[in-house]
Amino acid sequence: MKTISTILVLFASILCPQLIYAELRDPTRPPANIHGETIMSPSLFILNAIVVARDRRIAVINGLNKTIGDEILGEHVTDIHEDTVQLEGPSGKITLFLFGKSIKQLLPNHT
User: Fold this and answer.
1) 59 contacts: CB under 8 Å, gap ≥ 6
2) How many angstroms separate the first and last alpha carbons of the chain?
3) Which residue has better confidence, 28 or 7?
4) Cα–Cα dist 77/69, whole Å
5) Which of 4, 15, 45, 108 has the greatest number of beta carbons closer than 10 A?
6) Cβ contacts of residue 5 below 8 Å, gap of 6+?
7) Do residues 56 and 38 make contact, with C-beta atoms less than 8 angstroms apart?
8) Range 39-105 classified under CATH 2.30.30
9) How far is residue 58's CA from residue 51's CA, in Å, rounded to a whole number?
10) CA distance 94 to 111
11) CA nearest to 57, candidates 28, 94, 37, 86
């Protein structure tokens, strides 16, 4: 009986850490390559806001104002739309989405 309990303890000590440290996967999260090779909003980049005006477009990424051509964490801003921002660099093409944030459009000055 002692041998069986010893085997069970050894088996549990081998199996439990794997269960504890297993990566949990969100079943509702879309796959990273849902639109071909584009990566969907990696957690490294947080798109806080987008400002679109007639003469300029600004994306606030990780709290920093960025325009087309600017670099952030090794990636370059290639396009800014009303609800998405495109980055390109060593990681490939990355699309950041503005979820749950209002889009601010600046009206031209009427002076």
Assistant:
1) 47, 49, 50, 51, 65, 66, 67, 77, 80, 85, 96
2) 92
3) 7
4) 5
5) 45
6) none
7) no
8) yes
9) 5
10) 39
11) 86
- The Cα–Cα gap between 100 and 108 comes to 25
**pLDDT 10s digits, 23-68:** 666 666 655 545 544 444 457 888 999 999 889 999 999 999 999 9
pLDDT of residue 70: 96
pLDDT for 103 equals: 46
DSSP 36-93: TTBEE--TT--EEEEEE-SS-EEEEETTEEE-TT-EETTEEEEEE-SSEEEEEETTEE
Q: Which two tokens mark 24?
A: 């949990």
Q: What is the pTM of this model?
A: 0.53
Scan for tokens 């749950």, then name that residue: 100
Taking 70 as the threshold, does the pLDDT of residue 107 lie above it?
no
Q: Where are the domains of the chain?
A: 39-105
